[in-house]
UniProtKB/TrEMBL annotation:
<feature type="site" description="Interaction with substrate tRNA">
    <location>
        <position position="101"/>
    </location>
</feature>
<feature type="binding site">
    <location>
        <begin position="10"/>
        <end position="17"/>
    </location>
    <ligand>
        <name>ATP</name>
    </ligand>
</feature>
<dbReference type="Pfam" id="PF01715">
    <property type="entry name" value="IPPT"/>
</dbReference>
<feature type="region of interest" description="Interaction with substrate tRNA">
    <location>
        <begin position="35"/>
        <end position="38"/>
    </location>
</feature>
<comment type="function">
    <text>Catalyzes the transfer of a dimethylallyl group onto the adenine at position 37 in tRNAs that read codons beginning with uridine, leading to the formation of N6-(dimethylallyl)adenosine (i(6)A).</text>
</comment>
<comment type="subunit">
    <text>Monomer.</text>
</comment>
<dbReference type="GO" id="GO:0052381">
    <property type="term" value="F:tRNA dimethylallyltransferase activity"/>
</dbReference>
<feature type="binding site">
    <location>
        <begin position="12"/>
        <end position="17"/>
    </location>
    <ligand>
        <name>substrate</name>
    </ligand>
</feature>
<dbReference type="InterPro" id="IPR027417">
    <property type="entry name" value="P-loop_NTPase"/>
</dbReference>
<keyword id="KW-0808">Transferase</keyword>
<comment type="similarity">
    <text>Belongs to the IPP transferase family.</text>
</comment>
<dbReference type="GO" id="GO:0006400">
    <property type="term" value="P:tRNA modification"/>
</dbReference>
<dbReference type="GO" id="GO:0005524">
    <property type="term" value="F:ATP binding"/>
</dbReference>
<keyword id="KW-0547">Nucleotide-binding</keyword>
<dbReference type="InterPro" id="IPR039657">
    <property type="entry name" value="Dimethylallyltransferase"/>
</dbReference>
<keyword id="KW-0460">Magnesium</keyword>
<keyword id="KW-0067">ATP-binding</keyword>
Length: 304
């Protein structure tokens, strides 16, 4: 298997984009983004979309190619990313993928778990529960129906909670019973490269990034999206907190503090997800570049 996908993972704000661009330039290749919120053209500042200079430094795919009004699932991404990889691998031996969305990353590298078809009325009913009773009711239901999955799911993501519950109610079985069955084989090998740093450094970088986003106009960006605040794409840290501010429920200072807190929590969940892969090559986020290339090439030689 002589085609290799270099998958760059790690918590938000740790510097994945910089490393991905460096590797893409070194190996003369292109970058696939697996960040599920950078897909949307209306969401730029709050999703830390690479700058114009970064996008020009190496060719990127799946950056701001969709609208928040478009229906776009992880399954759609899996299919389109695999099609693109097939095309890229006709001219490149190595392609770089980068992103902090573990589910989307795994969809490309391992394949999606398969679920039975569910009556769409069940999702409609769950959406109504969410609208009328808030996310806490969904959390209570999932804890009762599937306590194992409840312990590891992103409990602040209503879309994930509703998806799990519709499987539970539609099949009479726990959502977790359908997870991680036999995965699909891929016509390429994946080398996962994880970036790590001291927790406090990651938290400091997160806090600094949030402050920078506010200065760069995040509030204005969110204000333009206020009428669509119910869309799943906008149930995202940095947006949902500012909707509370714009609706007069929170002060700006409190909203910003909540963005920082929720982003730190998100980073912790990201690391929990990525650490599940025992084959990941973990390197310091500030590793010297020649040392990084040496580590990656050694990993590629050792991986069959």
């Amino acid at each position: 298997m002589n085609k290799t996908l270099l998958s760059i993972v790690g918590p938000t704000a740790i510097g994945k984009t910089t490393v991905a661009i460096f590797l893409a330039k070194h190996f003369d290749t292109e970058i696939i983004s697996s960040d599920s919120r950078q897909f949307y053209k209306e969401m730029c500042i709050g999703t830390a979309v690479p700058s114009a200079e970064e996008l020009a430094a190496a060719k990127h795919h799946f950056i701001q190619q969709k609208s928040i009004l478009d229906a776009y699932s992880v399954g759609d991404f899996e299919r389109e990313a695999l099609q693109l990889l097939e095309k890229l691998f006709t001219k490149k031996d190595i392609v770089v993928m980068v992103g902090g969305s573990g589910l989307y990353n795994d969809a490309v590298t391992k394949g999606m778990d398969k679920f039975p078809k569910i009556d769409p009325d069940i999702r409609k009913q769950l959406n109504k529960v969410y609208e009328q009773n808030g996310i806490e009711k969904l959390q209570e239901q999932l804890k009762e129906e599937d306590p194992g999955y409840y312990e590891k799911v992103d409990k602040e993501n209503p879309h994930r909670l509703i998806r799990a519950l519709e499987i539970c109610f539609g099949t009479g079985k726990p959502y977790s019973s359908f997870l991680e069955k036999a995965k699909k084989s891929r016509p390429f090998r994946t080398i996962s490269i994880g970036l790590k740093a001291d927790r406090q450094l990651v938290y400091d970088r997160i806090n600094s990034r949030v402050d920078d986003m506010i200065v760069r106009g995040l509030i204005s960006e969110v204000e333009k999206l206020k009428e669509h605040s119910n869309l799943n794409a906008l149930q995202t840290v940095g947006y949902k907190e500012l909707f509370h501010y714009l609706e007069g429920n929170w002060t700006l200072d409190f909203a910003i503090s909540e963005i920082k807190k929720n982003t730190r929590r998100f980073a912790k969940r990201q690391m929990t997800w990525f650490r599940k892969n025992d084959d990941t090559l973990w390197v310091s986020n500030d590793i010297e570049r020649n040392a990084l290339i040496s580590e990656v090439e050694n990993k590629m030689r050792d991986t069959v």
